[in-house]
Specification:
The C terminus is likely disordered. This protein has four domains: about 130 residues, Rossmann fold; about 160 residues, Rossmann fold; about 80 residues, Helicase, Ruva Protein, domain 3 (Orthogonal Bundle); about 55 residues, Arc Repressor Mutant, subunit A (Orthogonal Bundle), CATH 1.10.10. The chain is built from 19 helices and 16 strands. α5 packs across α6, α13 crosses α15 and α18 packs across α19. It has a five-stranded parallel beta sheet, with helices on both faces. Strands 7-10-13-6-14 form a five-stranded parallel beta sheet. Strands 8-9 form a two-stranded antiparallel sheet. Helix content is about 50%, strand content about 15%. The protein is of the alpha/beta class. A hairpin with an 8-residue loop joins β11 and β12.
Length: about 450
C-alpha cells in the first residue's frame, strides 16, 4: 500500500536512514526538522501520515500531535519514542497520536505500523466518500421532483451547502431559483440563522443601497432612525439577492467592494461594519452576454459566480410535471378546503404534453385555477386554462418525401439552433450548453443564419 509520509525529526542521520528505508519500500517520503516547520509545510502540501520524533528542539512531538488534532484531525501521526519512554508515548496518544514505535527502530515493525495507519486512512476516506454520496442523494423538502435534471441540482446543493463560497443560481423565470437558495440555506450549518432575501428588480435604485447596507439616522429625508441593512440583519445566515442582473452599474461597484472587504458602510455613515453572512445570488438573465455587452461588471460576475447552480426549465424535467402537479393539488386543496385529490387521465396527458414556458410557477397557477373551477374531487381537462387545452407540441419539420423540397443540412442545423434558442427564451449561454457548443460557435451559426437571410432577400 503506497502512501505519502512526512518525517518530523531534528536528527539528520536518523532522518536520512528512515527516509531511505521507507522510499525503498515504495513510500513517498518528505522530511522537516521541527514541528513548526511541519505545520507550515502542511499548509500547502498533503500527506497521509506524519512520523514525528517525541523529543525535538522547540515544539515537542506531543505538542505537534495536539496541534494536528486541532487543525487536521483526519491526519494520522505515529510518534517515535526513546527506549523505555512509555510515559511520553502515552502522552502522545492522549494528545492525538495514532500509534507509537520505540527506538531502536525495527524497520519491519515500523512498516507494519505504517501499513495499519494507511489502511485506517483509506477506510476514513471511503467512509467520507459514502457519506457525501448518501447526503447528495437525500431529498430536499423544498425541492419536489425525481428527474435526473433535478437530482443533479439536489446533489450540487448538498455538495456546496457548508461552503462559504458565493453561489450564483441561474435559470429561467419561474423555475424555482429562490426555493433552491432556501434549500441551500436549510441544508447548511447556517439553517438556524436568518435567510434574508431581496429582489433587486423590485426595489427602486435610490433605495437599493439602503436596503442592502443600511443607513444612519438623518442620512436622507425619511431616515428617522438608524437601520441595519440586509447584510447585517442576516447575521451569520444567508443573504439572497434575486435578479442580480437587474442591479444598476453604480450599485454593482459598491456590491463588489462589499464582497471583497466583507464590510458594509451604511448610507450616511462613516464607519464600516463587518458581516458574516454567506451570499447567494440568482438571475434569469444571460450574464455572460451582459458582461460582453458591458451591462454587468465582469469583476463582480466572477466574484458572485464562484459556484454556479443551473436550475433546469420544467420542459427539461418532464418526468416531474405530474409529481409537481400532485404536490400543488395537495397544498392548494388543503389551504382552500376543497376536496380535490388528483387529476383525471386526460388532464394529466395535457399537462405532460404542454411545454410550460412559465415553468413551475405557471404549473402552480394552472393547478390553482383548476381547483377553483372544479366542482368534483378530480381535475378534468375543462378545468385547465384554454392555452393548455389548445396547445399542440411543436416539432422541427425537416423531413419530406418530395425531392425538390429537401433542404441542406446547414439549414436543418440553423432551424434547430433557432428552435433551441427560442425554447430557452433567448439565453445564449443556456442554448450553447444544450447544443453542446461554446458561445462563440453559437454566435457564428447565428451570424451565418443572418447572412443567409440577407442573401435570400437580395436574390428576391
Amino acid at each position: 500500500m503506497g502512501g505519502r509520509i512526512l518525517i518530523v525529526d531534528d536528527d539528520v542521520d536518523g532522518v536520512t536512514m528512515l527516509r531511505g528505508a521507507l522510499r525503498r519500500r515504495g513510500y513517498d517520503v518528505e522530511a522537516v526538522a521541527s514541528g513548526d516547520l511541519a505545520l507550515t509545510w502542511l499548509e500547502t502540501s498533503e500527506v497521509d501520515i506524519v512520523l514525528a520524533h517525541l523529543r525535538m528542539a522547540g515544539m515537542s512531538g506531543v505538542e505537534l500531535c495536539a496541534a494536528l488534532r486541532a487543525t487536521r484531525p483526519e491526519l494520522l501521526t505515529i510518534v517515535i519514542t526513546g527506549n523505555g519512554a512509555l510515559d511520553g508515548a502515552i502522552a502522545a496518544i492522549r494528545a492525538g497520536a495514532y500509534d507509537y514505535i520505540a527506538k531502536p527502530i525495527d524497520l519491519e515493525s515500523l512498516v507494519i505500523a505504517v501499513e495499519r495507519a494507511l489502511a485506517h486512512v483509506a477506510l476514513g476516506r471511503e467512509l467520507r466518500r459514502l457519506r457525501v454520496e448518501v447526503q447528495a442523494a437525500r431529498p430536499l423538502p423544498s425541492i419536489v421532483g425525481d428527474s435526473a435534471a433535478i437530482r443533479t441540482v439536489i446533489s450540487l446543493v448538498h455538495r456546496v451547502a457548508d461552503s462559504d463560497a458565493t453561489v450564483l443560481i441561474v435559470g429561467e423565470s419561474g423555475t424555482g431559483k429562490e426555493l433552491v437558495a432556501r434549500a441551500l440555506h436549510d441544508a447548511s450549518s447556517r439553517r438556524a440563522l436568518p435567510f434574508a432575501a431581496l429582489n433587486c428588480a423590485a426595489v427602486p435604485p435610490g433605495l437599493l443601497e439602503s436596503e442592502l447596507f443600511g443607513h444612519v439616522k438623518g442620512a436622507f429625508t425619511d431616515a428617522r432612525r438608524t437601520r441595519p441593512g440586509l447584510f447585517v440583519q442576516a447575521g451569520g445566515g444567508t443573504v439572497f439577492l434575486d435578479e442580480i442582473g437587474e442591479m444598476p452599474l453604480d450599485m454593482q461597484v459598491k456590491l463588489l467592494r462589499v464582497l471583497q472587504e466583507r464590510r458594509v458602510r451604511p448610507v450616511g455613515g462613516e464607519d464600516e461594519v463587518p458581516f458574516e453572512a454567506r451570499v447567494v445570488t440568482a438571475t434569469n438573465r444571460d450574464l455572460d452576454s451582459d458582461v460582453a455587452e458591458k451591462r454587468f461588471r465582469e469583476d463582480l460576475y466572477y466574484r458572485i459566480n464562484v459556484v454556479q447552480i443551473p436550475v433546469p426549465p420544467l420542459r427539461a424535467r418532464a418526468g416531474d410535471v405530474l409529481t409537481l402537479a400532485q404536490h400543488f393539488i395537495h397544498k392548494i386543496a388543503s389551504r382552500t378546503g376543497k376536496p380535490v385529490v388528483g387529476l383525471g387521465p386526460e388532464a394529466a396527458r395535457v399537462l405532460v404534453d404542454y411545454e410550460w414556458p412559465g415553468n413551475v410557477r405557471e404549473l402552480e397557477n394552472s393547478i390553482e385555477r383548476a381547483i377553483a373551477l372544479t366542482s368534483v374531487n378530480e381535475i378534468a381537462v375543462e378545468d385547465l386554462p384554454e392555452k393548455l387545452r389548445q396547445h399542440r407540441r411543436t416539432i422541427l419539420a425537416t423531413a419530406t418525401n418530395a425531392p425538390d423540397e429537401l433542404i441542406p443540412l446547414a439549414a436543418v442545423e440553423q432551424r434547430y439552433v433557432r428552435q433551441v434558442l427560442d425554447a430557452v427564451g433567448g439565453n445564449k449561454t443556456m442554448a450553447a450548453r444544450i447544443l453542446g457548443i461554446d458561445r462563440r460557435s453559437l454566435y457564428r451559426r447565428l451570424d451565418d443564419e443572418t447572412e443567409s437571410r440577407a442573401a435570400a432577400a437580395t436574390l428576391r
